[in-house]
Amino acid sequence: MEAIFGIILSAILSENFILVKFYGICPFMGVSKKIDTALGMGMAVTFVMALASAACYLINLILIALNLEYMQTVAFILVIASIVQVVEMFLKKSVPALYKALGVFLPLITTNCAVLGVVLVNVQKSYNFLLSVVNGAAGGLGFTVAIVLFASIRERVNKAQCPECFKGFPIALISAGLLALAFMGFSGLSIF
Amino acid sequence: MDFKKQFSEGLLTKNPVTVQLLGMCSTLAITTSLFNGIGMGLAVTIILICSNVLISALRKVIPNQIRIAAYITIIAGFVTVVDLALQAFIPALSTSLGVFIPLIVVNCIVLGRAESFASKNGVLASAVDGICQGIGYTVALIITCVVRELLGSGTFGGGLLNGGNGITIIPSPFPAMQMVMPVGGFLVLGFVIAGSQKLMKVLEMKNKKKEAAK
Fold this sequence. Notes:
Helix content of chain B: 55-70%
Shape of chain B: flat
Radius of gyration of chain A: 17 Å
Helix content of chain A: over 70%
Number of helices of chain A: 9
Distance between the termini of chain A: 11 Å
Oligomer: heterodimer
Shape of chain A: globular
Structural class of chain A: mainly alpha
Order of helices and strands of chain A: HHHHHHHHH
Order of helices and strands of chain B: HHHHHHHEEH
Strand content of chain A: under 5%
Structural class of chain B: mainly alpha
Distance between the termini of chain B: 27 Å
Number of domains of chain B: 1
Largest sheet of chain A: none
Number of strands of chain A: 0
Largest interface: A-B, 45 and 41 residues
Radius of gyration of chain B: 19 Å
Largest sheet of chain B: 2 strands, antiparallel
């Protein structure tokens, strides 16, 4: 129980997937112009990360049984791609409203390094099934927290004046830097 | 085929990091020492060249509907090869870059070039494109590395020069540790991109003046 709580806390705050570990910077920068889409993206990523953690844990067992550990990267990315495809088809049929809201961002989750990253970290730290799924879901929540916070900052920064050559992306990176500075305050945070 | 144009596009006007904004994760995460920057740059360049060549050679065979899955499988294959090779021959680099080597699979530079260039051009042009984009990526990495390392640890060439410790430029109490931490990554990359935008503006103005003088 303590281990689970520790993983949740560190995945969301002290080891935040985006602001501390740099997984999933592309969607963090690309989909953070509006709070609504940022939230939708965060939810979808959280779901895929939890599902991918579970599926890849089982796939990894098979790979180990067959002595094929060196195929991990290839196998995992294929599993993730198919999960994203299934989620896409499922949403299209059953929740068309959410499907429309997410639009092109859904297929892009495949190339979100947070998903492959969390799976690889699970294997590296040899988490068991439960801890893997918890780490995936909590990592996704951390992603959501960071992207929503950043989107709300960015909505305001876009209206402010800044030097010509800093307009757009550079100033967004610098605001992300300040956000990361704030999250550094959580480093070393441990309850147990 | 215009080699010179491809080169200048890869290096500056269409630089994968500073203009196309691809492959941010690795750029931000591993640029803490010169050794990491050069190693990661070379690894990505090699993978980019191999995958560009193979995808371009197979571009008429791969059906359009499943092309992304096919590209990712090809890229993942090359990444695994490089990952295993690094573990065997340069274990120091492999531990230092850690999970970011397998994560090259989802580095948007490789997939982006496959989709936007290799799937439409010949084998030779794609190989050249891989080299040029790879060099552009490496240069951007090295600049970010040098700045972050200098400000963060006060050294130059960490992991490579002076027996791995790097040459000390700023003595010990002064470097700001934050610069080698995540914060520094965002800040320095922001300034590097702003700098390259400024540089492009200046070059553009010069070109315009030249044309006007003619």
